[in-house]
Structures are given as structure tokens and as C-alpha cells.
Task: inverse folding
């Protein structure tokens, strides 16, 4: 167990990205080693690049384009394209868990029904989705200059009922070109060893 009471990761890799394209490139690179059943948990402050990373991941998996943060619908499913780079590969299930306050609420959206045939990516999923799989990748994205926390965003927006809630802007300026630190951690037997991440196209180890 780590000092926070959570299980320790099998490994941790820290990378630097200076542009949105580099963040997407890391997503494409990680997609090469993903398979159906894999779970990715994305964390990061406002505009950290969670959706930008997922867009790159979708390109690498060869799923239907148009990936945006699934703020209002909670879950978006992007099917694998038969004429894409990985025909017959897994679909991408993209989840925004910001509005979901517990693991029980995660269970209510029935991700178990799609996990076996899909790669599941959960934004704001830390401490909410770990029960879905004994193995996962946790990816933390941090801006050099943050835009604040989700709680601060809620206060700035005032009445969330008239704006769509704070998560409507959680990826504000998500595609800006500025330095980001990206920390990748592997948990469980699926990720007993780290994939080769240090040489991904467009990125350098910190």
C-alpha cells in the first residue's frame, strides 16, 4: 500500500508534452498496446488535456472520430472502424465520471456490459472505478499553469443548473499548446511491467 492507503503502482513513468499534438501522440502510442478489457483512469485539473489525450487514443485504436468530453451524456461509445488502422479491434467507451459521486453510481451506468469488448477510458474516475478491473492504467495530466480545480469552476459558474454544471467547462482550453507533465502508472497483473513509453513520437521523458 502507498502512503495514501491506496495500493502501490507496479511502475510509474513521467513524461513531458509541450503541445496538444504531443499529448495526442502519447495517446496514439499507448493505444498500440491496448486491448479489449483495458481500463484507463484519467485525472488532471482544468484544461489538463484529458480529452485531447483520449482523441489521440481513439485515433490509435481506429474508432469513430468526434471524441469530445461526454459531459452531459456521461458515456459515449466510439465503435471500431472496419477500414481503420485496427479493424476488428476494440471499441472505445469514453466516460465522464465527474457527476458520479461513488462506485455505486458507476455501477448504475453498466460499464460491465461493454468492458469485455472495449477499451474503457474514464475521466475523473479516480476512487470511483477501480472496482471494475483488477488491472488499470492511471494517467495524470498536469498543466504548467493550471486553471484551478473543479470545485473552483463550480463556484465561478454559479448556478450549475443553468450552465450544464461545472463539468461543462472541465476541459476548457484543452487543446492549447503549453507544457504538460503526464504521469502514467500501471496497476494489476495486466500491467506488471511498463510498455515502452519514453520514446513515443513527439514526447520526451522528464
Result:
Amino acid at each position: 500500500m502507498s502512503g495514501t492507503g491506496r495500493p502501490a503502482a507496479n511502475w510509474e513513468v513521467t513524461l513531458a508534452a509541450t503541445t496538444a499534438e504531443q499529448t495526442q501522440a502519447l495517446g496514439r502510442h499507448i493505444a498500440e498496446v491496448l486491448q479489449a478489457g483495458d481500463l484507463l483512469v484519467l485525472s488532471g485539473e482544468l484544461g489538463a488535456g484529458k480529452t485531447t489525450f483520449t482523441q489521440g487514443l481513439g485515433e490509435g485504436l481506429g474508432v469513430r472520430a468526434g471524441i469530445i468530453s461526454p459531459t452531459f451524456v456521461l458515456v459515449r461509445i466510439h465503435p471500431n472502424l472496419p477500414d481503420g488502422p485496427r479493424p476488428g479491434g476494440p471499441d472505445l467507451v469514453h466516460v465522464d465520471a465527474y457527476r458520479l459521486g461513488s462506485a455505486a453510481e458507476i455501477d448504475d451506468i453498466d460499464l460491465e456490459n461493454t468492458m469485455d469488448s472495449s477499451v474503457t477510458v474514464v475521466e475523473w474516475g479516480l476512487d470511483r472505478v477501480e472496482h471494475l478491473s483488477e488491472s488499470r492504467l492511471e494517467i495524470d495530466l498536469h498543466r504548467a499553469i493550471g486553471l484551478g480545480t473543479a470545485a473552483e469552476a463550480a463556484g465561478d459558474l454559479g448556478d450549475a443548473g443553468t450552465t450544464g454544471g461545472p463539468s461543462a467547462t472541465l476541459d476548457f482550453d484543452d487543446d492549447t499548446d503549453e507544457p504538460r507533465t503526464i504521469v502514467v502508472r500501471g496497476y494489476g497483473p495486466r500491467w506488471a511491467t511498463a510498455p515502452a513509453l519514453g520514446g513515443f513520437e513527439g514526447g520526451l521523458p522528464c
